[in-house]
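User: Fold this, then the next.

Assistant: Folding the first:
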Amino acid sequence: MATVSEWIEGARPRTLPNAIAPVVAGVGAAIALDAFSWWRSLLALLVALSLIIGVNFANDYSDGIRGTDEHRVGPLRLVGSGAANPKAVLRAALTSLGLAGVLGLALVALSGYWWLLAMGALCILGAWFYTGGKKPYGYYGLGEIAVFVFFGLAGVLGTVYVQAGRVSWDALGCAVAVGSFSMAVLVANNLRDIPTDIESGKHTLATRMGDGGTRKLYLTLVTVPYALTVLMGIWHPLLFISFVTAPLLLKPIKAVGGGGKGRELIPALRDTGMAMLAWAVLSAVALAI
């Protein structure tokens, strides 16, 4: 039976910035539209956190029963390591995704934007079928696109819409920026796992692009938010403050661009996620002001 600390590690707390950053950025864009609602923002955050924890447990379960994690070099996987019973991890995944669904339903009901139920359902289905089902799309190189859509576009724009009833160009810019950061986190993760994914037959975008192409993609993705900062800064000069987050990317850029492999790339995931969260916080403050 897995210990409490192993369950916490299995939930992959280092991925939480991928859920927090889009809501924070969305809150800043909502304030800029004079439409901030603290309780709607809180519900949106709880939905995002429940969803990403559910995704992590679902991936742990699905990859574990397929044997994909048998030679994993990254953080602990509960099923793959044998620390937890697969059924227990499945229950944790379904509970987290179910909680995301209930909280999302409450948010939609209280805000009155019922069409958002369809988006919420797509998010939950996307979370499960990333590595679940007979033909998981994560095994066909589509994981990065899903992350961009769900934790970029849907996360930011959904947070703004449930408060303002509309979105803005600022919100779209933040959505693309956060989505690019989230993609970069997954690209770094899949870059690390190229050897073991090839061995297990998991065809991620990284295995398709190869080592060199994947490293170039990462470097491109982490420049997108700052390019958007320049563009958005024309109308909101305070946004240029988010450039102070760029030094947080120096180590991951060195690791990815310098040919780091295996465990050398693990800190790159953490640091890229923290850069994303810091960028979202400072951008939200700038838009709010």
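Now the next one, as you asked:
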Amino acid sequence: MSASAPRPRRDTRGIVDPAELLSRVRFRRHVPAPELRPYLEHYWLMDWELPEPYASRLVPHPSVNVVFQRYGRPGAPTAAASAWAEVAGVGLGLFTQKLTGVGRVCGVQFRPGGFRPFAPAWPVSTWTGRRVPLGDVFPEEGGAGSAGTPAAVPAALPAVLSPDDDHARVAALDAFLLAHGPAPDPAAEQAMELVDLIRSERTVRRASRLATASGLSARSLQRLFAGHVGVGPKWVILRYRFHEALERAGSAGDADWAALAAELGYSDQAHLVRDFTATIGVPPTAYARAVSAP
């Protein structure tokens, strides 16, 4: 990557106990080709060699991901059956992935609203809460079938997963995406701008305010988000609000939870605690103690 190239973001928002994850896997992000940057957050690469199984947990962003993954060493008898690619729609709940042995993942995280120009035939809500084989969304890649079977291995899989060099993997991901778009889509641009507004402007706490800011009716706003983001504007507002609460809980064990609840737009501290406990499984104080422990 050249010295003048933009850098991917470095935050760990959405990762449950990021210090634990980063101590067990080699995780990094890379910037895509210039033509793809308006539509993508980044590429994310992960490699691991674990002496015992580990479960990673994530509160997903309102993003679609394309994920190429391999479990086991290349060339092993089961290598063909343990490598596959899939499209992961916006995840609605806590996502847990068990990692074992040796493995590799190369992922594409699209900006919320940025996936539709690459698969314009379907509204993005088609994939929400689902993980489907890559060939189901990009039939020209081949490999329709159940994830994890030889029939599900698409044409791009070896080019993405085989290189040990990060730049070669990034080049393969660039080539894959550029072969599939992006198709011009003004509605996608509008959806991405509105999600950026939600993410950057904390005063946008209600979908009605977003509708006013966009000049759209409430119904048109809902249709735009269903077609291009995959979830409604209220859901996106709540998810980014929760990411902020998760990050603050992980970095400040003595946080003023009542003040944080008010700052993030929760009705009161009890509302924040209920939301946090329902999503993560423990209240924020218990989570803060757990992630701060040696």
